[in-house]
Amino acid sequence: MASPTSEVNSTDRAIEVRGLDFGYTAKPVLKDVSFRLEPGAVGLLGPNGSGKTTLLRALMGHLPLPAGKVSVLGRDMAVAARAARRGLGWMPERGGILPGMSGVAMVAYLGELGGMPVTDALQRAHEALNFVGLADERYRMADTYSQGMRQRLKLAQCLVHDPDWLFLDEPTAGLDPRGRLAMLDLVHDLSHAHGFGVILSTHLLADVKAVCDEILVLRDGRVLDHARVDAGAERDTAVFVLEGFGDREAFCAALAARGLEPVPEDRALLVTADADHGPAAVLAAAAASEFALRRLQRRTETLEDLFFKLVDASGDEASGALGALTRGEGGER
Amino acid sequence: MPVYERGYRGWEDSGTRAAPAWWAIARRGILEPLKRRGFLFLLVVAWVPAIVKGGILYFTYKMGEMTKLLGGDWTDITAAGFRSFLEWQTPWVLIILAIIGSGLITKDREENGLALYFARPLGLRDYILGKGLITLFYYFAVTLFPVLALCIFGYLSTQGATGLQMLVATPLRALVYCTLAGTSFSLVLLALSSMGTRTVFVALWWVLLFATEGLAEIMAMFRPELRILDFAGQHTNMGALILGGRSMTGVSPWVSLAVVLGLIAAGLAVLRARVKPVEVVS
Fold this sequence. Notes:
By secondary structure, chain A is an alpha/beta fold. Chain A contains 13 helices and 14 strands.
């Protein structure tokens, strides 16, 4: 009889993590990580060593978890990780090739290990390799593939058993610009046209922007923020660069009175404000404080700005900053 | 899917029952080497002693006492006689298993392939069982299978052989012996394979284990009980309990059996410690 914790909710395709702590040694790598993800494209962002790969391994059920709960596809990974892995595809960053096999043999073999009958696995291997654009090279030995082909092969083995979620660890690592775009195109297609849940672990913000709807930012093993990445977020929230002559302190006070918080940057002031109504508020503040405004320039706050702000900030200041800037459009899923 | 269609399609389950993961691993590992002609040739050569013994048995029956000049072991169709045959096969066990087993886990670790295995719904037991069956099959291929063939041939071609002895008792005893020895050899080799990322070094360590016979012989000149250091010898000495015949001087077959069981336990412990989807580098 299945234990209560291993019961499956067949409609639950979500991933939920609560209070997860983990360390390979005494030093913790993940600290009190909590979030919930519905199927979609999620960018797992963080500097090197922030715990991204460890978090993916925890989601795969590869790690003994001393504290916290990880639930994937409605299954508790502490007791039913093997069953849950039927619905997961994993593309490791390093290696991920079985030497001595052709591309199609490797993908078919991994399909069999994923619980597919031999004939189905072979057929699916051909289809998956065709989908990732390796149809012409499928009979070549996998260990002779170029880096770009290896990445595609790893994506194919990830897809062969038709999982619900794909965990992609640095899928564009080592690819040339053309290969990178092609890989991102495939991942985008899988998540947005075919309904796969995708977790894209990377430190390349451009990759996240190209593919993901949500981001999960990690630093030092903690989740700094979890929010949507919307084009609208960039459009509606902007940073304005202000320069001019006059009583700077009075101008700052006038800005503050209108709910704007000026931040000095060299000779200029930076103000984060609503993209549409911000300029009018700034002009009103300048008029009220008799400040001769010489420069009012909008600088769109990019994902890069937000990311660096988060990971460079310390502790609680960082937490929630990204959400405050991006939730205005999409809100938390 | 037509080749011109590049869109993604989900898997439509054919409804055929899927094999367990350990069987998928074992089947592929067993069939793959058989595609190599060189390896097939080696396997055939490994059967030469069995073919020679079969021929001698046949001529012993046809020509009576004349061929007995060749020696008792070649014409012995008792379980103890087959134990001698299994001892002759030791070099082939060394060679065939070195070729088959050295890279079984090493190659998976070389390119982070273990992560791919354990991203599937399989556990450590499936992996070890699957890999272990590959080496066990090839151990059987040069030991148990020739013995079984000789038992059937001996029953059909020699006088005085009873069906009970040749078709039941001896094959069963050979099966028990070969399963124990083969499991030990397999797990030790897999454990070695799990400890490195270069196949050639694993093969070298495997050869060195068999070379302990020479070392043990030298040391036994001073203390006979030091024959316990003979890795392969412990397996054949254990055979005295199961198949009969003389035991090794200085080492009881019971001690050898304990050593073999210890090797099995140690192999499993090493595999348990070394085969992980996540490698932690401290």
